[in-house]
Design a protein that fits this description.
single chain, 164 residues, 1 helix
Length: 164
């Protein structure tokens, strides 16, 4: 004997398949977002680390100059020529535009290159302390020139002081 029960409830096969399809499409969307965020984070982190190394290298070049040097050209590879600005007051740091004699450009490996081939722009600014003491403040910024669709490109700034 077969009795028919009323009030039985549950999911039909079609409802279950639709629920699975919605779940899978949601999971695929989350996987794409996760993949994008990992790649963006990796690229940003790599560029931030390289910018930090490049800013430290420039600080070392600048602090290695004599306090009164106003002619060494640090925009070229060593041996440095005597047609530059040395530690003369001037220059700018990002986001201001780069000034001649106070900026150089680096490729992906950190080697100086032409502005058109640059992956990083390195700018520096020399400020003579106006307090009467002989101190020069040296600011260096390195900015990634890569295109970041979300957020700002990495920019690292380092400040130091030099005395005679």
């Amino acid at each position: 004997m077969h009795t028919k029960t009323t009030g039985e409830s549950g999911f039909t096969l079609v409802e279950t398949l639709i629920a699975i399809a919605i779940l899978v499409s949601g999971l695929l969307a989350m996987a794409q977002v996760l993949t994008y965020s990992v790649m963006a984070s990796k690229t940003y982190g790599r560029d931030a680390a390289k910018a930090t190394a490049a800013v430290q290298d420039k600080i070392e070049e600048l602090t290695g100059l004599d306090y009164g040097d106003t002619t060494t050209n640090l925009t070229v590879n060593a041996p440095y020529t005597a047609d530059g600005a040395g530690l003369a007051e001037g220059g700018s740091i990002a986001p201001a535009a780069a000034e001649d004699g106070y900026a150089d450009y680096l490729d992906a490996s950190g080697t100086r290159t032409a502005a058109g081939d640059a992956v990083f722009t390195r700018q520096w600014q020399i400020i003579d302390d106006a307090t009467g003491t002989e101190v020069k403040r040296i600011l260096v910024s390195v900015t990634s020139d890569r295109s970041f669709q979300v957020g700002e490109a990495p920019n690292t700034v380092l400040v130091t002081e030099k005395t005679p």
